Known about the structure:
Layout: E1 3-9, H1 16-24, E2 32-38, H2 44-54, E3 62-67, H3 72-82, E4 87-90, E5 96-97, H4 101-111, E6 117-126, E7 129-132, E8 143-145, E9 165-168, H5 171-175, H6 186-197, E10 200-211, H7 239-242, H8 245-265, H9 270-277, H10 287-294, H11 297-312
Parallel strand pairs: 1-2, 1-4, 2-3, 6-10
Antiparallel strand pairs: 4-9, 5-10, 6-7, 6-9, 8-10
Helix pairs in contact: 8-9, 10-11
Amino acid sequence: MSLSVVIPLYNKETNIGSTLQSVVEQSVAPSEVLVVDDGSTDQSAQVVQTFIQSHKDCGIPIHLIRKSNGGVCSARNTGIREAQGEYIALLDADDIWDKNYLKEQLSLIHDFPEARMWGINYAEVYGGKPVRQLRTGLPEGHRGYVPNYFHLPNRTSDLFCSSSVVIDKKVFRQVGMFDERLRYSEDNDMWFRIIATGKVVFYDRYMVYYRYDAQNRAMNQPRLLRYWLPSYADKYRQPLYMQNSEFYEWVQRWCAIKIKHTYFADKTQYADARTAISKLDFEQLPFKYRLFFHLPYSIAKILYQLDEKRRSR
Length: 313
C-alpha cells in the first residue's frame, strides 16, 4: 500500500520541525511527505528546507511545495492532487504522531478494507499534558467500523480530526475536495461527506497529539459565520447526500443550531446569519426553528432565551 502524508503549512515555524520529526520516526515509513507552504510570512518554509537537508538519508522523500496564500483547504487540495499514494494521511503542521501511528493505520486498512476513511483517537494537550478527553459514544477501546455515526448516544467528540485520518484517495473523486470557501470546520465538512456516503473506521486509542498551545491555531481566532460550514447547508441538497435521509436531516439540524446561536448572540453578524438561514431546508427542522427565524427578531429572541433556559435546567 502506498501512502502519502499531506501537511498544510502556514506560519508554524516553531512547530513544523517537531511535526516532521514525528513523521520520519514512524516505525513504518510513508511513501512520501508533501509539505504545502501556503504563503507563510515567517520562516516556516526555511525550517522545512533545513529539515529536508538534514534528513536526506532518512529514506523518505520529503517535498516542499510553495504557493500563494489560499487557506488551509487550498493547501490540502494542492497536496492531495500532487500525492502519488493510494492513501492520503493528513497531518497539521503543529500536531504530533505516536511512532506507531502509521503502522496501526495500515493495519486498520488491512483489517477493514470496505472503509473509505480510517481514524484513530487524538488527545488534546497543552504544554505537553492532556487537557481533556472527549466522549466518543463508542465502547472504550473500540476498533472497527463506526455504526450510526450521526446518532451515537453521548458522543461529544467528532471522532476524527485533520491529523488523525487516512483517506482512500479515490474518495475525493466522489465527494469532492476540501471546500475552499471555508476557514473553520472544513474538516468536519469532509468527514460528513465521507461518512454519509460510505463506511468509516475508528480506533479508540490515543496516537495523535493535538497541541492546543501551538503557534497560530485557527481555533483561537474569531469565527465569522460567512467562513463557517453552517453558512452552506444547501451544499448537501443533492442526491448524493439527500438519499441518506438520516444524515440529511441531521446535518440540517446541526447547521441550524450553530446559526441560531450566532443569530441571537452577535448582532454584527446579523446579515450573514440571515443569508445562512435562507439556505436551510426547513422541511428537515422542528417547527420551533420556523419561529426562531421567521418571527420578528425581538419576539424570536425572547423565545430563544426561554428555550435556552429550559435546555440548561
